[in-house]
């Protein structure tokens, strides 16, 4: 089945589907089926990461749909991310090879530095001292980027990019790189619309992917009483106006801004609902209206690493 999802052309000529499936928090026991359901209804882009701990099952879902002839490997866009404990240049290839081994793939389409902050290099994803504080590494992300360029040159990743980097950090990479980042993945939804950072990235030829586009209601640190984006009364009014669900309005908001979007779901009906956004558009006035919902409402602050010298959200405007 041909997918109805449009593609975004990257600065290296590759094309990425503007819509994909997120897999953070998708339990190993449910994500195999979620990936299969997603591919069955036309998803061709899967977003994952080493640290999500489920790449083996994501890979099993992909393998099943290749084996039954629904898709070929080259029809799919698979993203993975370098975890913070592997920033030291000699560990970058080790971490991507681990992801490839779990996924059962020879290459990923996109490999991102997950965060600009490095953690102490050992076998733990979250190395801690006796008081429970994360142990940092001071590896410069410029050195990590050089190793990312090498994994692209070796063909382990078709293209490389950044996640959770701020404007100053992206600029520093651009001033010192051989291969330009093709994609920047950042938290993005109406409560944190990221307009300045998106405009900056686009002005540099870097495509942007919005993570937590539905407000990540299942994030592990959510507290009772936290604002629920999906229940926002202004959003519900737009949902009524367009006769689309609140989630579909949130996803279309990103697509209409030229932003790639990767909602997570393990629920078959929602997986279907979320991709059903290519038969309508938001008006420019409604996009501008949704832009006014911004409350600097960051949901993924990486609070455990605010003291890291490269923490992206503490010292810079955006
Ligand atoms: N680079 C980075 O640092 C980060 C990357 N990401 C990536 O972005 C992806 C998406 O972000 P994420 O934080 O997971 O959150 P999302 O904003 O995608 O929200 C996911 C939640 O919304 C629910 N949901 C999905 N569809 C609907 C719907 N149509 N109606 C109502 N509820 C719905 C899901 O429930 P259910 O599954 O039960 O259906 C789940 O609880 C991640 O999974 C990951 O791949 C996310 C955070 C950080
Ligand atoms: C979900 C994720 O990618 C985080 C918190 O790094």
TrEMBL record:
GO terms for molecular function: oxidoreductase activity. The record marks 81 as: Lowers pKa of active site Tyr. The keyword Amino-acid biosynthesis does not apply. Substrate binds at residue 114. Residues 20-293 form the NADP-dependent oxidoreductase domain. PROSITE patterns: ALDOKETO_REDUCTASE_1, ALDOKETO_REDUCTASE_2, ALDOKETO_REDUCTASE_3. The keyword NADP applies. InterPro entries: AKR, Aldo/ket_reductase_CS, NAD(P)_OxRdtase_dom_sf, NADP_OxRdtase_dom. Belongs to the aldo/keto reductase family. This is NADP-dependent oxidoreductase domain-containing protein. It comes from Dendroctonus ponderosae.
């Amino acid at each position: 089945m041909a997918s109805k999802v449009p593609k975004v052309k990257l600065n290296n000529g590759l094309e990425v589907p503007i819509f994909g499936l997120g897999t953070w928090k998708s339990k190993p026991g449910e994500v195999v089926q979620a990936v299969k359901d997603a591919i069955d209804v036309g998803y061709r882009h899967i977003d994952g990461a080493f640290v999500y701990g489920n790449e083996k099952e994501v890979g099993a879902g992909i393998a099943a749909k290749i084996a039954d002839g629904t898709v070929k490997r080259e029809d799919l866009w698979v993203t993975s991310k370098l975890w913070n404990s592997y920033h030291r240049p000699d560990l970058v290839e080790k971490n991507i090879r681990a992801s490839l081994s779990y996924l059962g793939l020879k290459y990923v389409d996109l490999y991102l530095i997950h965060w600009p902050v490095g953690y102490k290099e050992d076998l733990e994803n979250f190395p801690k001292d006796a008081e429970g504080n994360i142990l940092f590494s001071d590896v410069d992300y410029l050195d990590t980027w050089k190793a990312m360029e090498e994994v692209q040159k070796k063909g382990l990743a078709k293209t490389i990019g950044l996640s959770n980097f701020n404007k100053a950090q992206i600029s520093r990479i651009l001033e010192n790189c051989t291969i330009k980042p093709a994609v920047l993945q950042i938290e993005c939804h109406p409560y944190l619309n990221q307009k300045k950072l998106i405009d900056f990235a686009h002005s540099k030829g870097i495509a942007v992917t919005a993570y937590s586009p539905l407000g990540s209601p299942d994030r592990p640190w959510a507290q009772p009483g936290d604002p629920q984006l999906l229940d926002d009364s202004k959003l519900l009014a737009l949902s009524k106006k367009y006769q689309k669900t609140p989630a579909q309005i949130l996803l279309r908001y990103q697509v209409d801004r030229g932003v790639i979007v990767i909602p997570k779901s393990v629920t078959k009906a929602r997986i279907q609902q979320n991709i059903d956004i290519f038969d309508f558009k938001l008006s420019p006035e409604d996009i501008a209206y949704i832009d006014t919902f911004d409350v600097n409402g960051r949901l993924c602050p990486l609070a455990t690493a605010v003291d890291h010298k490269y923490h992206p959200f503490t010292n810079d405007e955006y």
